[in-house]
Amino acid sequence: MSFLRLPATLTLLFLLASTLASVGAQQCRLVRPSQDLAPSPDNPFPSSVPGSGNVTSGSGSGSGSGNGTNTTTTLQPFEYGQAPVRGVNIGGWLVLEPWITPSFFNATNNTNVVDEYTLGQLVDRDVALQMLQNHWETWITEQDFVDIAAAGLNHVRIPVGYWSVPITSADTNYTTSVDPYIPGAWPYLLKALNWAKANGIHVILDLHGAPGSQNGFDNSGQRTSNPVWGVNPANVSRTLDIITFMAKEVGGLVDVIELLNEPAGFDGSNWASVISGYWQDGYQAVRATAGNSIKIMIEDAFLGITSWENFLTAPNAQGVIMDTHQYQVFNNDQLGYSEDEHINFTCTLKDGYSSYVDNNIWMVMGEWTTAMTDCATWLNGRNVGARWDGSINTGQAFGSCEGYTGNSSTWSSSYKTFMRMFWEAQVDVSEAASGWMYWCWKTESADDWSYQKGLEGGWIPQDPSDRMYPSICD
Ligand SMILES: *[C@@H]1O[C@H](CO)[C@@H](O)[C@H](O)[C@H]1NC(C)=O
Ligand SMILES: *[C@@H]1O[C@H](CO)[C@@H](O)[C@H](O)[C@H]1NC(C)=O
Ligand SMILES: *[C@@H]1O[C@H](CO)[C@@H](O)[C@H](O)[C@H]1NC(C)=O
Ligand SMILES: *[C@@H]1O[C@H](CO)[C@@H](O)[C@H](O)[C@H]1NC(C)=O
Ligand SMILES: *[C@@H]1O[C@H](CO)[C@@H](O)[C@H](O)[C@H]1NC(C)=O
Ligand SMILES: *[C@@H]1O[C@H](CO)[C@@H](O)[C@H](O)[C@H]1NC(C)=O
Ligand SMILES: *[C@@H]1O[C@H](CO)[C@@H](O)[C@H](O)[C@H]1NC(C)=O
Ligand SMILES: *[C@@H]1O[C@H](CO)[C@@H](O)[C@H](O)[C@H]1NC(C)=O
Ligand SMILES: *[C@@H]1O[C@H](CO)[C@@H](O)[C@H](O)[C@H]1NC(C)=O
């Protein structure tokens, strides 16, 4: 197999790598205090969750029926490759991100709390747990799933951190301590699986943070210039035990398990081969544990889909979906695009996407946005500025951030028109593959990244098959 061809987007990779280094460089290295074993979540497996621990086909639910009261119906398995995946990411819920919920981070009264790792280190554990529980209970509720279904969407992708997975010592020969992280989110995931089921929504369960950090981003749980997942075989094996546990506990309740979000394939050649080995081992582990119906999602690891030709294809593997993420805001080349160039660049992806699904496996654009700047406050990390306005100094700036993020009531109508076009172009190219999931469903104050605000503001249609610009990529 030729999955490690030289990436076509080498420049982009260097930019990404230097981005990671520059973000990481601004972080103080924090000393890890010795701590007692982390508390276990209360009642991690409420018996009210149907199918918990059991493997069934599909995720079980009443297609579009009901408001949460009807749990007797079954959802037909989603026909990947036939109908497009149309979905949103439930970002900033079970894995915190400072830019999605800045008020949570402000409420710590400690500017060194930049991610969940430092939250666990620097805030009194009881206080932090209480803050987290309040957040888990309020940031996403069943109403969100009702609204997601009403927006014509058929999928959610739910990120979880490894520290939230209540693996026991019977399930692993590695430690079950998640120190300094604060566990406790798992029961909320189980609730969400019920809400999804009751509202006819299919679920992609996404392991978003792995032991040692797979990319050093705050959204892996730990913002660090030295992520170590890919250089410690023990961290990778521990992750396989965690994935196996997830498959065992909720394999019958979700449509897809995504083995890991955004591992740093750009971080030296050894990471890329560790990642491809993990995809293969993770595939086997989930298949062996949860059977043949569940779908397994892998990720292009910043290497581009062309690096993953003939990888986990039939007849050696089946039911595998590639996830590719498409942002145009994290390097100066793309920040410099005019509005037309953003649309044009998007449209150039279409042929590659459709030939990938024709010749390989299903492929979903699992994260993307209508934002065209990195202006959203703390998008690049808490207390970190933006390349757009030069508050991250890259030697180049593009303008003021005013009118690009925050409350959409301050935006021009031409900007909103552009976002509608950008939304349609990205939907058009990803539906030439197997579909898409927008990042993300809601944000506290960055409307340019919020699907919910887009629906309210009209730059995202109420019915995702509506088109104002049907020939945008023709
Ligand atoms: C799972 O299935 C097994 C075998 O059918 C059954 O004994 C067990 O009670 C089920 N567990 C749950 C949580 O439904
Ligand atoms: C939920 O659906 C049931 C059955 O259709 C209905 O009787 C009930 O009023 C609904 N409840 C709410 C809160 O909408
Ligand atoms: C639950 O779903 C079944 C099958 O679709 C339907 O026959 C039944 O009326 C629904 N019950 C409620 C309370 O909505
Ligand atoms: C958080 O704190 C920063 C810095 O003090 C402030 O600019 C921002 O408005 C605060 N955000 C929220 C949501 O409280
Ligand atoms: C932060 O400060 C406020 C105001 O003094 C206080 O009410 C709150 O408990 C503090 N939060 C933490 C996590 O210490
Ligand atoms: C743990 O080690 C024992 C002894 O080598 C082995 O039999 C068992 O399968 C291992 N458990 C896991 C979860 O890998
Ligand atoms: C990652 O692996 C290293 C080396 O074996 C180990 O010291 C460390 O505890 C592991 N980290 C986690 C979070 O499991
Ligand atoms: C976008 O692509 C079209 C068609 O290839 C071309 O005519 C147009 O000049 C391009 N616009 C920009 C800004 O690159
Ligand atoms: C956004 O601005 C509008 C108009 O000024 C205001 O009504 C609304 O409350 C603001 N939204 C937020 C989240 O601050």
Automatic annotation (TrEMBL):
GO BP annotations, alphabetical order: glucan catabolic process
MF terms in GO: beta-glucosidase activity
InterPro entries named in the record: GH, Glyco_hydro_5, Glycosyl_hydrolase_5
Residues annotated as transmembrane: none
Presence of keyword Signal: yes
Signal peptide: 1-25
Annotated Pfam families: Cellulase (PF00150)
Biased composition regions of type Low complexity, renumbered to the chain: 46-58
Superkingdom field: Eukaryota
Every Glycoside hydrolase family domain range: 127-373
Region (Disordered): 34-75
GO CC entries: cell surface; extracellular region
Alphabetized UniProt keyword annotations: Glycosidase, Hydrolase, Signal
Protein family according to the UniProt entry: Belongs to the glycosyl hydrolase 5 (cellulase A) family.
Classification via PANTHER family: GLUCAN ENDO-1,6-BETA-GLUCOSIDASE B, GLYCOSIDE HYDROLASE FAMILY 5 DOMAIN-CONTAINING PROTEIN
The name this protein goes by in its record: Glycoside hydrolase family 5 protein
